[in-house]
Amino acid sequence: MAKAPHVLVVEDEEALAQLLKYNLEKEGYRVSVAMDGEEALVIADESNPDLVVLDWMLPKAPGIEVCRRLRARQETRNTPIVMLTARGEESDRVRGLDMGADDYITKPFAMGELLARLRAVMRRIRPGLADDKVTCGDIIIDRVAHRVKRGQREVHLGPTEFRILDHLMQHPGRVFSREQLLDAVWGSDVYVEARTVDVHIGRLRKALMVGEEHDPIRTVRSAGYALDIEAA
C-alpha cells in the first residue's frame, strides 16, 4: 500500500498549526509541524516532505527565506510550497511566487478552501500523489472510477455535469462566473453560449438533490455559482 503524502506545516501560531495538522490528518496526509523557519529546514532536510504549507511571518528565518532555501536544495527544489500569510498586498504575493511558492493563500482563510488548494497543487505538481477522491461535505467525487456519491447514494451525472462539479469541488466556496466555468469546463477555444452553463447547473442540481436534500450549489446574482461546503 502506498504511503500517504507527507505534509510539513510551518506555522508559529500553535492553535492554527494544530488545526491544520488535525484537518490534514483527517484528509489522510501524514503531518509534521515546525514552529520556526530553522526547524522547518531541519525537518525538510531529514524527511523530504511531499508538500510544504509555509507561513510568511516566522521566528528565526522568515517564510520567504525558507522558501528560497528549499528551492536551492536539490532534494526539495521541486517540492510544492503553499504560503500562508496575513499580508495581502499584491507585491508580497508576487514576491512569494517569484521566490518559488506554488500557491499563496491569505489569512483568514476557510479550511475547505485551503484543503482544495493543496489538492490542486498536488495534482498539478505531483499527480501521482494526489488523491483521486475529493470530498466536500457529504459529496464524494472519484475521478478514476468517474463516480459521484452523496452520502450513501450514487449520483448519476453526464460528462459535462461531472466536470462542472469537479471544478467547483476543487474550489469550495469560491464564486465562478459563467465565463470562468465555460473556460474551465469547455475550454477557452470553444464557443458555447453562457446560458448553456445555467442548463448544466440545473441538471447538476437535479441530480444532487433528491427528496429533502439541500441544494449545495449557491447562485450569486449577477456573479455566478459556488459550491457551499457548509451546505454540501
Strand-helix topology:
Elements: E1 6-10, H1 14-26, E2 30-34, H2 37-47, E3 51-55, H3 63-72, E4 81-85, H4 90-98, E5 103-106, H5 111-125, E6 133-136, E7 139-142, E8 147-150, E9 153-155, H6 159-170, H7 178-186, H8 195-208, E10 217-220, E11 224-227
Write up what this structure looks like.
With 232 residues, this protein is α/β, with parallel strands linked by helices. The protein has two domains: 6-125, Rossmann fold (3-Layer(aba) Sandwich); 133-227, Winged helix-like DNA-binding domain superfamily/Winged helix DNA-binding domain (Arc Repressor Mutant, subunit A). Helix content is 40%, strand content 20%. Strands 2-1-3-4-5 form a five-stranded parallel beta sheet, sandwiched between helices. Strands 6-7-8-9 form a four-stranded antiparallel beta sheet. The longest helix is centred in the middle third of the chain and has 15 residues, at 111-125. The chain is elongated and about 55 Å long. The chain starts with 5 loop residues before the first strand and ends in a 5-residue tail after the last strand. The model has no long low-confidence stretch (mean pLDDT 85).
